[in-house]
Design a protein that fits this description.
3 helices; 11% strand
């Protein structure tokens, strides 16, 4: 459901034996043939905090970063506190 809105996927590994690995998630995404709003980039990360840092680095000021998945995914991003992002606004 999210795929038509996403132009950059940041997949992450999670702790725990039941968690899918980032490589597995990329494989599922590719197998499903999901399409984005245009060209789509994909990257893999060791943990949610690294994925968020990369998303912030690659985002344009008008982009939205959405974190979704398991509690481990969202919790891994919120572990260091609620991210406060700032970007210059387009005139």
């Amino acid at each position: 459901l999210m795929a038509p809105l996403v132009d950059y996927w940041h997949f992450t590994d999670l702790p725990g034996p039941r968690s899918a690995r980032a490589d597995d998630l990329v494989e599922v995404r590719d197998r499903l043939g999901v399409k984005g709003p245009g060209p789509v980039a994909v990257s893999r990360h060791a943990d949610p905090a690294s994925a968020l840092a990369a998303a912030i680095e690659t985002a344009d000021p008008a982009d939205r970063i959405v974190v979704f998945g398991s509690f481990y995914t969202v919790g891994g991003v919120l572990e260091g506190g609620l991210p406060r992002l700032s970007a210059p606004h387009a005139a």
